[in-house]
Design goal:
With about 220 residues, the chain is mainly alpha-helical. It is about 45% helix and about 10% strand.
């Protein structure tokens, strides 16, 4: 035991230095390794932000490219209705989507290459049917010439399926509903009576009040 104490006294300075070195090394290791996760996390965050920014830039044009317009197609086509189409489609594309012309369609009065606009009404007349938009200048080739702008009101108690589809927002189904209601309940006496037909709310009636009559 005495020999051990003598050795300790002889080398105590060296022991103190070794212990201090170990402590210093431990502190250095903790400090250096404790900072790495923070650095890596920052790099990952920056990479994530960069990827999100890139995705955002590429997604914006795609959202604009899928925009649609609504066009109301009426008259001598197989499936008159309101269609949602791409803004770059032409009238020929709309006619195809509606199942094509009927046998009575006056195709000569239609410009199939015409561009279409949102909320536009396209009316395809029958052969021999008079159109208030007929004229002798070049405007007959425009889509405007195909839109029925007649101010003559439609008699809702006498109009047939085709005539009823000339009303704003009225397709084949709604026109048939009007005829069925009229057959079952008799003539309409007022605009309020039309409100009893399924699909004709207050907003629809407001749009139709200047387009129809009851006598």
């Amino acid at each position: 035991m005495d020999k051990i104490l003598e050795k300790v006294k002889e080398y105590w300075k060296m022991i103190v230095l070794v212990v201090c070195g170990l402590i210093a090394g431990g502190i250095f290791y903790v400090l250096t390794n404790g900072q790495k996760p923070t650095t890596n996390l920052s790099v990952e965050n920056l990479s994530s932000v960069s990827r999100q920014s890139s995705v955002s830039k590429f997604s914006e044009p795609n959202e604009k490219s899928v925009s649609k317009i609504m066009v109301d197609l009426k008259g001598a086509v197989t499936k008159p209705n309101v269609y949602q189409i791409s803004p770059d489609e032409r009238l020929v594309d709309l006619i195809k989507e509606a199942g094509g012309f009927t046998d009575q369609a006056d195709q000569k009065s239609i410009n199939l290459s015409a561009k279409l606009k949102d909320e536009e009404v396209i009316y395809v007349p029958k052969i021999g049917e008079n159109s208030s938009t007929e004229n002798t200048d070049s405007s007959v080739n425009s889509v405007t010439s195909q839109v029925s702008t007649t101010t003559e009101k439609i008699n809702i108690n006498q109009a047939d399926l085709t005539e009823l589809q000339k009303l704003t927002g009225v397709g084949q189904k709604k026109a048939q509903d009007i005829i069925d209601f009229r057959t079952k309940n008799g003539d309409f006496k007022s605009l309020e009576d039309l409100g009893k037909v399924s699909g004709f709310g207050d907003k629809t009636l407001e749009k139709l009040k200047d387009e129809l009559c009851f006598e």
